[in-house]
Predict the structure.
Amino acid sequence: MTCGRASVIIFFREENLTPIRFDMRFVPAGTGQDVWDNPHATQMVDRFMPRGRQHGPMIGILHLGELHPTPNVLKEVIVTVGEDVRAGRYGDFTFVVSSGDDSTRGVVMDIASAQGLAVFVCSSPDSLDRAEPAGDITANERETLSLVLQAGGTVTAAQLGKQLGVEQTTAGNRLTALHKKGFLQRVERPHPGGDQFVDLRSFRFELNK
């Protein structure tokens, strides 16, 4: 796969949901099953996702494929990008790491948990809906994320509150917490239904192989 960039507009059947425009960045680390031991790995990532770039909703997929990064390189990349996302240097951004190697995915999840970073981990960029959240996330927040994904990936606080049987304010607090951590994106809008919260794992991308 080659590096890809796309801008997508999603339309909804529900009248109270506003169409969403977001960008996608696909960053392949390489090909084959070699050991990835590049001491300047983050420079490669920066070329496609430069820090300080402000934009609307975006999903960034770092695709490791069958590569086997050394622990030091993997930590450098995950922590560098993850901390930039947490600091807002990429704007409203969802960070996904895909790897076909079980042990590599496990290390990514361990790094995210240890550093408190918001990362989604999957085996392939074609299976984003099965990506697992890793990092600073509680059991209740995992449940909320699952409900958002089951609802189609985009909800308002009113919709989630109705689904959970709780007050809209309570549902809004849950969604806002996940947005602040980096697991959901927020589309602000002057609408009676309130802001939309988006889990970009719900969208499908066709990537050239």
Notes: The chain has six helices and eleven strands. The chain has one domain: 4-202.
